[in-house]
Amino acid sequence: MVDIKSVFKSYNKKPVIEDVSLKIPKGKITSFIGPNGAGKSTLISMVSRLIAKDAGMITIDGKDISKEDDKKLAKKISILKQSNSMNVKLTVRELISFGRFPYSQGNLTKKDWEKVDKAIDYMELNDIQHKYLDELSGGQRQRSFIGMVLAQDTEYILLDEPLNNLDMRHSVQIMKTLRRLVDELGKTVVIVIHDINFASCYSDEIVALKDGKIVKQGPTCDVIDQCVLKEIYDMDIEIKEIEDQRICVYF
Fold it and tell me: Can you tell me the distance from the alpha carbon of 147 to that of 144, in angstroms, rounded to the nearest whole number?
């Protein structure tokens, strides 16, 4: 479990995260939703230790992440940032193999390559695995970066806007893949996501943020609620029940 206790973060004396406390359960998909500037990406980056918190404590399975060894932490938790770019000439397969660095330090074993192949299969990248990243569409590159995270084979997977640059088909594919990682492999997945309908249909838990504070957290059915969404987004959002899923209509 990820336990966040009274965490604060400011940039240039402007608060971005203010006294946030929450518990992220193991073996589930937890989605962070909220308007731009709510602090979603900042919070997920602090959990992964990409950026330092100003105050508070974050523990993973009872261990303070600020005291964890870098190599040990990289085997426990992986993150895909919102923007990813590489200037070096790499194939899809080479990029995905970088996910094994915490284990192999660049000298991949047979087991490492098996993990790479499994990630390629999961992301349906077999046909383009030998193509260079600069030859791919934005969506293909995004799927390749997610494949790299999957190859890292951590218990906790953090994804900041994983549906960026993806069309509808591949967005659904990614969300179904994440659901499989949780249901079949017992992974814990945390997502920053803008599409509240994907959050509604695929999440076990949702954390709604606004202005650096938590507005609501809990099971999906508690957060995908007209009054809660009105408070978060300052707009009326109708909710329809379709095949036991709550679909938000806001167009």
Answer: 5
